[in-house]
Amino acid sequence: MTSEAVEAPEGGDRALLDRLRAGEDVAFGELFTRHSAAVFRLALGLTTDRAEAEDLTAEAFFRVLQAIRRGAGPVDNVRGYLLIVARRVAWEWSMRRRDVPVSDEELTHRA
């Protein structure tokens, strides 16, 4: 598949968002097909390994779907919205890792 097959005019994304908001869940699969490679490429740069990048990509799409179902989420520029969500998720995950003591010395000082 070429990048042209994945890229879509913004009007196409708006139509998919309208369909998704109208309850047509298959439209979300089409958004995923259009934008998952770009989100995954960003995730690879934000995480430490491929599996984590896959998890980050899935989490970004999940959060966007939840936002849309709540009546929020993107109204246009779906890819930009997804990339911002992916960055936020990566930041949240990195903050959580910092909060977990990793050595006996850290455990001793926190007690």
Walk me through what this model shows.
- The protein has 111 residues and is mostly helical.
- It contains six helices and no strands.
- α3 packs across α4 and α3 packs across α5.
- The radius of gyration is 17 Å and the shape is elongated.
- The N terminus is likely disordered.
| Biggest sheet record | none
| Total beta strands | 0
Helix- and strand-based class? mainly alpha
What count of helical segments does DSSP give?
A: 6
| Beta-strand percentage range | under 5%
The Rg value, from CA coordinates, equals 17 Å
Average pLDDT rating: 86
Order of helices and strands: HHHHHH
Give the SSE map:
Layout: H1 3-6, H2 10-21, H3 26-46, H4 50-69, H5 78-99, H6 104-110
Summarize the structure.
Helix content is 77%, strand content 0%. It is mainly alpha-helical. Residues 1-9 have low confidence and may be disordered.
